[in-house]
């Protein structure tokens, strides 16, 4: 079931659009913001609310990199894996993170504190290598600074 | 105008510097005059393709018979690897772009504008929302703007991440709530775009040029350039240069001047080997092209594209095979899957490059790669992603064939220690 807060936000979006299905991506974002990820049941609920089929909604959900169809940790680490960061030492950063968190791409730590994911160019290539944790950008990274950065996140 | 402390230019500061006076001036002219002015200024789209902005606007149906619903859409998706210029404009001076949006929407008589912003640009989103509110309170956005009778609503849409959202028609599909799949042209978006209505999609930097053209005139704008086309350009440099960053310079500034003077030359211990002049989907330029004027026409004459004008430098300690492998991994991942050559071809290319990089390359691999550069080249696929992906590969096979060969021969990457 979508909660009243979610329904309000989704309806608000729908009111600006020529047809309800156009709010599909917004609806997925609303639900993910509330729950951290989007479950099969959420997909069905969104579909019903917007007058779409669940398959249609899922085809949209799975197309986009940043809609999570599986549970993620409390903090999501998105490491830029594009070219300028690669040239400036991305591999060392990733090695350190994987070792420290004992994770591979897409994995979540057993205490559900961190999920590790790659992301294309973060648009801050003059400060490469870079990563984002939740909404925060961290730039000019060095492997030895990573532990302090991670410590900022509960 | 960008502040050096990283804070956004406030509405007050912007007005002090003459901000929004171009809007007042524009609203006193006819919409078609604005389009003509932008044509005369030879403003070329800054999103990568360099199409003349005024000409594009000229295709939008105007007058009594035209649909009343039209859209001006800002492409702020900026996901091209190595590109970071729009972020500077969005974070540094959101009002400049808003003024550009309002004037441009007026020129095509669009009552609604969407800013399509990529998810990762969090501070751009916050600053834009603040600026939209300030401009609305000041009467620059909303009903009957500055008593002109022109109405405009501006809404911010934040994307959930896919390179294809930046492709003009993929963006429209995403704004309609679907997968970012491109559409067949014709009909062109100018005639039938978002929700089937006439729509213009313009890049952030393109729109930021518009107030200055209106304020100071077409001749002045053309005069800023020292190459083909009008205006200044935001150039960028990343890689192992001393002062990576974004620099506003006359359009047509030579590559050498950008890299040696503005980017401060190569870091100690590194030599320049090659560069992608404008993002991941452009062909390599090498030492012999250092004096090329960085405008759309001149860079094309060297067999590459100006693209976004943000230069990615490859130094002499960086492996060209690894470099291209990184790029093709991106393109393979971001293919929308709509057409077979791109969906199947790019992962194949990626796998071959990976095996060469790991020292597992075989004779014949380079032939397979070369076949792809023509099979996925211009005209073979539905949109420009696949040909864009082939640009760095094709030019790398041309300029760095020896490096590919030595990986295969020595069964290892000569750039790695062990
Ligand atoms: C795969 C792909 C991705 C693109 N991404 C962007 C982008 O992020 N931003 C952008 O302005 N243009 C992007 N473009 C170019 C747009 O299709 C379009 O040409 C541009 O937004 C038009 O604006 P302009 O005329 O002001 O340059 C992309 C093109 C392709 C093929
Ligand atoms: S070329 Fe690639 S990205 Fe473009 S439509 Fe075809 S499959 Fe999609
Ligand atoms: S390549 Fe990492 S921020 Fe651009």
**Biggest interface and residues each:** A-B, 40 and 54 residues
Give the ordered list of helices and strands of chain A. Answer: HHHHEHHEEEH
> Could you name the CATH topology of the largest domain in chain B?
Rossmann fold
Oligomeric state as shown: heterodimer
Q: What is the element string of chain B, with H for helices and E for strands?
A: HHHHEHHEHEHEHHEEHEEHEHHHHH
Overview of this protein structure:
Chain A is an alpha+beta fold and 154 residues long. Chain A folds into two domains: 4-63, Arc Repressor Mutant, subunit A (Orthogonal Bundle), CATH 1.10.10; 75-150, 3-Layer(aba) Sandwich (Glutaredoxin). Chain A has helices at 4-15, 24-35, 40-50, 54-61, 83-87, 90-101, 146-151, and strands at 75-80, 114-119, 131-133, 136-138. The longest helix of chain A is centred in the N-terminal third of the chain and has 12 residues, at 4-15. By secondary structure, chain B is α/β, with parallel strands linked by helices. Chain B has three domains: 11-223, 3-Layer(aba) Sandwich (Rossmann fold), CATH 3.40.50.11540; 232-315, Roll (Ubiquitin-like (UB roll)); 320-410, NADH-ubiquinone oxidoreductase 51kDa subunit, iron-sulphur binding domain (de novo design (two linked rop proteins)), CATH 1.20.1440. In chain B, 43% of the residues lie in helices and 12% in strands. In chain B, the strands form two sheets. In chain B, strands 6-5-9-7-8 form a five-stranded mixed beta sheet, with helices on both faces. The N and C termini of chain B lie far apart (49 Å). The chains are: A alpha+beta (154), B alpha/beta (418). The interface between A and B is large, with 40 and 54 residues. Residues 45-49, 51, 53, 75, 77-80, 163-164, 166-168, 201-203, 206, 383-385 of chain B line the site of flavin mononucleotide.
